[in-house]
Design brief:
Blueprint: H1 22-39, H2 86-97, H3 120-130, H4 132-140, H5 144-159, H6 181-187, E1 192-197, H7 206-215, E2 221-224, H8 236-245, E3 250-255, H9 261-274, E4 278-282, H10 304-316, E5 333-338, H11 345-358, E6 362-367, H12 371-383, E7 391-396, H13 402-411, H14 419-431, H15 434-449, E8 455-460, H16 468-475
Parallel strand pairs: 1-2, 1-8, 2-3, 3-4, 4-5, 5-6, 6-7, 7-8
The chain binds iron/sulfur cluster.
Length: 484
């Protein structure tokens, strides 16, 4: 068991793809022999230990390098319940050691050319550039500041290569006006409604078009999921284009699970060219939730935060990840998911701040069933000083029946269904009025959530019950206003 990585479940180290020169092979062997027993090092070739409270993040089965996913719990990883969430452990220790500010730095994806090779060679090279004398005097001068500055001068350029340059700062969008109607309405202070439309399972777009036409008069934007729960369906891009053709505004959801760094960039360029102006970045549900045979469970090329970082720079700096210029950059309003009830609200709030720094301009939260408990998360968000930088749309799901409520409570990571909601739905089942009760619960939630400071709208996820949306919007008095 590695000394500094609690509860680690063994995963083999990466192997280099190409044969390395003898000097690098020897150094890699020494590094693995020391960091293996200490940290369970997997030899990713771009060490992040300094930022992660000396717990190796490469144990995370989703390969996340920027914090826990929205399904993390204090007890276990949702992909593999037999191990703890390593990111929960990292956050827990960082907060304990007062190192939580370091967690805000947006860390790069792996450079697979370096996988399985040493990272010490880069450290020695950088120390040489700083100057051995400077390093020695910086480390021995006695002051804590001097030691930390010296270490930073060595480690930061190594973990933040020129093609990434991640930091802990907020980067305001560099465009004037609004990229989409959703942004325009939010900027004008309207309490907006977005709704999710389930993409079809076949090439028949009849029901999809029907739902779009039905919801268009009631909501500002329609979200199209990207194979939610790792179940293949019509792509979010195809649904978004269908919505545009019907004069409705789409939010194209895009997951890191199904995209490499190449396909992500290609897809948003294509989507932007077709007129999609809202893009929601998600790491994505693990393959573990989907039907078998399961695809790779362990590698996500880019996590949600890295996706935001890449897409913001494509739009605002006109550059691909590899540095090539984009003559006509894409234009979009960038969103991300927030998960108020996953793990610990303090941890989640830090993760949301990191997303805002990386480029998130709006959040659509996971489903909320407890409006009172939401206050704690909103307080944490307020403490992080990001309320003036991001719009928050709270996720609402009208429960169609007791079975759905019980399933969500047990099976959906990051969703908390209070006992009293479950009991109401169970009683409604006995009386035969489950749908009516589900709608009333949703309406009560909207009423409680609407006046909360920092909430800019709701996002209705009707999960195949799109017919319920017009009634919720109408009875909650949330009709669309004339365009500002
Ligand atoms: S971050 Fe990478 S190099 Fe550092 S301990 Fe983990 S696997 Fe090893």
């Amino acid at each position: 068991m590695p000394g500094f990585t609690p509860g680690r479940r063994y995963q083999p180290p990466f192997m280099p793809f190409k044969r390395q020169p003898f000097r690098k092979r020897a150094l890699a062997k020494i590094e693995a022999a020391i960091k293996g027993p200490l940290f369970g090092c997997r030899m990713c070739g771009n060490c992040l230990l300094q930022e992660t409270a000396f717990i190796c993040p490469m144990e995370c089965p989703k390969g996340l390098r920027n914090g826990p996913c929205g399904g993390s719990t204090p007890e276990r990883c949702y992909v593999d319940a037999s191990r703890p969430c390593i990111w929960y452990k990292i956050y827990e220790r960082s907060f304990k050691l007062g190192r939580e500010a370091l967690l805000l730095e947006v860390l790069p994806p792996m450079d697979w050319n370096k996988a399985g090779t040493d990272s010490w060679g880069d450290v020695f090279e950088q120390a040489g550039k700083v100057g051995i004398k400077n390093v020695a005097s910086g480390l021995t001068s006695g002051g804590a500041d001097s030691v930390s500055q010296t270490l930073d001068s060595i480690f930061r350029p190594v973990r933040q290569p020129g093609w990434w340059q991640g930091d802990s700062e907020y980067h305001a969008p560099k465009y004037e006006g609004a990229a989409s109607e959703l942004e325009q309405r939010l900027k004008a202070g309207e309490f907006v409604v977005a709704a999710e439309v389930t993409p079809p399972l076949s090439v028949n777009t009849g029901k999809l078009k029907e739902n779009i036409e039905m919801l268009k008069p009631y909501v500002t934007a329609l979200n199209f999921t990207d194979s939610a729960s790792a179940i293949p369906r019509m792509s979010s891009l195809a649904c978004s284009k269908t919505a545009l053709d019907l004069d409705a505004e789409p939010v194209m959801q895009i997951t890191g699970r199904d995209n490499t760094r190449v396909s992500l960039q290609s897809n948003v360029i294509g989507a932007s060219a077709l007129g999609v102006r809202n893009v929601l970045c998600l790491t994505g549900d693990s393959m573990a939730l989907g039907p078998g045979p399961q695809g790779r469970l362990d590698i996500v090329d880019l996590d949600g935060i890295q996706m935001l970082w890449v897409l913001r720079r494509m739009r605002d700096e006109g550059k691909y990840l590899d540095g090539r210029e984009i003559k006509f950059p894409p234009r979009y309003f960038l969103g991300a998911a927030a998960s108020p009830f996953a793990s610990n609200m303090k941890f989640q709030a830090l993760r949301e701040q990191k997303k805002v720094n990386a480029g998130a301009q709006f959040f659509q939260t996971n489903v909320v069933f407890d409006a009172d408990a939401l206050d704690e998360w909103l307080n944490e968000i307020t403490r992080r000083d990001i309320l003036d930088k991001v719009y928050i749309l709270i996720g609402i799901t009208p429960l169609k029946n007791y079975k759905t409520a019980a399933y969500m409570a047990k099976k959906i990571p990051g969703v908390f269904v209070p006992e009293k909601v479950l009991k109401r739905m169970e009683a409604a089942k006995e009386k035969g009025n489950e749908q009516e009760e589900g709608l009333q619960i949703a309406l009560e939630l909207v009423e409680k959530i609407k006046p909360k400071q920092g909430v800019s709208g709701i996002h209705i996820m009707a999960v195949g019950w799109e017919e319920s949306v017009p009634r919720i919007v109408t009875e909650a008095g949330l009709g669309k206003k004339g365009l500002p």
